Amino acid sequence: MAAINSEEINQLSKRLRQEQRSLLLRRVRSSYGLLIGGVLLLFIIALALLGPLLSPYNLTGMTVINRFLAPSGTHWLGTDEFGRDLLTRIIYGAQVSMGVGLAVALISSALGLVIGIYSAYYKALDHILMRICDGLIAIPGILLAIALMAALGASVWNVIIALTIVFTPGIARVVRSTALVVREQTYIEAMHAQGASDTRIIWRHIVPNTLSPLLVQATFVFAEAIISEAALSFLGAGVPVDVPSWGSILQAGKLVIYKAWWVAVFPGIMIILSVLSLNLLGDGLRDLLDPRVKQKVKRLWSRK
Considering the entire predicted model, what is its pTM? Predict the structure, then answer.
């Protein structure tokens, strides 16, 4: 048998990478939930980033004679109780609500990754960190967030801190459950036998295998953080009153819902669309990264 030279090996590896990319693209195209969720999320993000540049109205500009104008060609989504353009306020509110959700998802994912990984690897830390997480999870999330906001005060950063404390334990448990499985694999034992350090094993071999479930969980936390921020602002325990967010706009609209329904309906629609897009994106990523879950769901439905 003729020996395979390095050029043939490079060609084979290049062909393999191309086939893997084409397979990944086919799987992405076949996942309608992933595509719809991704496109909808990109539209909301683009609206939040580019909307203020396109809006002809000032965020704080008040025209009392134009209060409670119905949606029209001049004001597409109508005006609020102070005559402010509702579309402009919803666009700026998207920056706050989406920004809080993204910050909470990123910070809680980073903290949950560290807590979950080290809890799974060191049993002594596991008993301490997981009991703290269990205690936080036992408290209803919205009540814990309200209590933290009462102690910290109303501000955007305090909302991020409070929601990060609420969602970090759940992410830590997801990462820990995955890391426990990876830690028992044969190649991890081989790394121990070769004298590899704990830091190398954790960050070079265990962490990469926990990123897929972490990414999926982060999308769901993103959606839950948007709802939680809106709930806190709706209850008056979230961002300050002068900061526009979907929850604060919704809170003002509840008082005039029978007189000016659009003040409450349109921010509610934005919350629904953003959460729906993130849930579709999370489900699509879960099916894409772990096709076994999709097959299990199909078998369960077939039995019914």
Answer: 0.88
Q: State the pLDDT at residue 4.
A: 56
Question: Cβ(247)–Cβ(232) under 8 Å?
Answer: yes
Q: b/e per residue, 222-252, with b = 16+ CB within 10 A?
A: bbbbbbbbbbbbbeebbbeeebbbbbbbbbb
CA distances from 283 to 77, 196, 270, 286 (A): 31, 36, 20, 5
The predicted structure's pLDDT at residue 121: 92
Domain boundaries, the chain: 31-62+72-303
Which DSSP category does 77 fall into?
A: T
47 three-class SS: helix
Q: Which residues contact 230 (CB under 8 A, 6 or more apart)?
A: 97, 238, 245, 246, 247, 250, 271
Phi, psi of 85 (to 5 degrees): -65, 125
31 and 282 Cβ atoms separated by less than 8 Å: no
Q: SS3 of 35, please?
A: helix
Q: Which range (7-11, 94-98, 281-285) has the least confidence?
A: 7-11
Helices assigned H by DSSP within the chain: 6-30, 32-54, 86-121, 123-138, 141-152, 156-183, 186-193, 198-201, 211-234, 246-253, 262-289, 291-303
- Contact present, 146 and 232 (Cβ < 8 Å): yes
**Which top CATH class is 31-62+72-303?**
mainly alpha
